[in-house]
Each structure stands twice: as C-alpha cells, then as structure tokens.
Amino acid sequence: MLAAGTIDCLPNEDPEISTILREVALLFDPKPSIIKTDFPHQLRLTTEQPTHARIRHYSPEESRVLKEHVKELYQSGYARPSSSPYSANPLIVPKADGSPRVVINFRPLNKLTFR
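Request: output the structure for the sequence above.
Response:
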C-alpha cells in the first residue's frame, strides 16, 4: 500500500522499482489534502420549493459513525457549514466487507430535477 511519504515493499522486489515508488509515493496519497472547489454547478429543478428532510433517529453506533465521518470530511476540506434550505438524510449501509459506509439519500431532490 502506498501512502504519503511511505512505501511498503516486498523483500524480493527490484530495488530500482522500490526507489521509483519512493520518489512518487506522494502521488498516491489515499486522502488528498488539497481539494479543488472552484467548479460552478447548478441543478435545474421543477419547483422553487426546497426539499427538506426531517432528522432521522440513529442508534448510538450509527451516531458515532456519522460523527466520525463528518469530522473527517470537515478536516479534509470536503465539507463545510451550510445554511442551505435544502437537506438530505445520511444513511449507513454495509460495505461488502461489513464495515459501515455513509451515503446520502438524495432521492427526494432527484425527483425535482429536470431530466
């Protein structure tokens, strides 16, 4: 696995390949810290009435997973505070390996978009 500034090599790997991989390891940062956010985007909706989801009730474990996920999104720059009148509920679904995955239910908003 390549991570920023580190490299894991097998003992029988070619030393030349290991050297090259060490030189480019930062290109394989699994969690980039610089995020490009200057992409303008608009959704054309069939109504001006915002969709607003009521807050769901989550189990203590789901709440912990959500808090951890949101904290990670804020720290990485993927999320920021918002005062938008639109909202959508997060859901927690299992990945193939059984670990939790946080997804957002945008189905109510999708129903209002032009196709």
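Confidence is low (pLDDT under 50) at residues 1-5.
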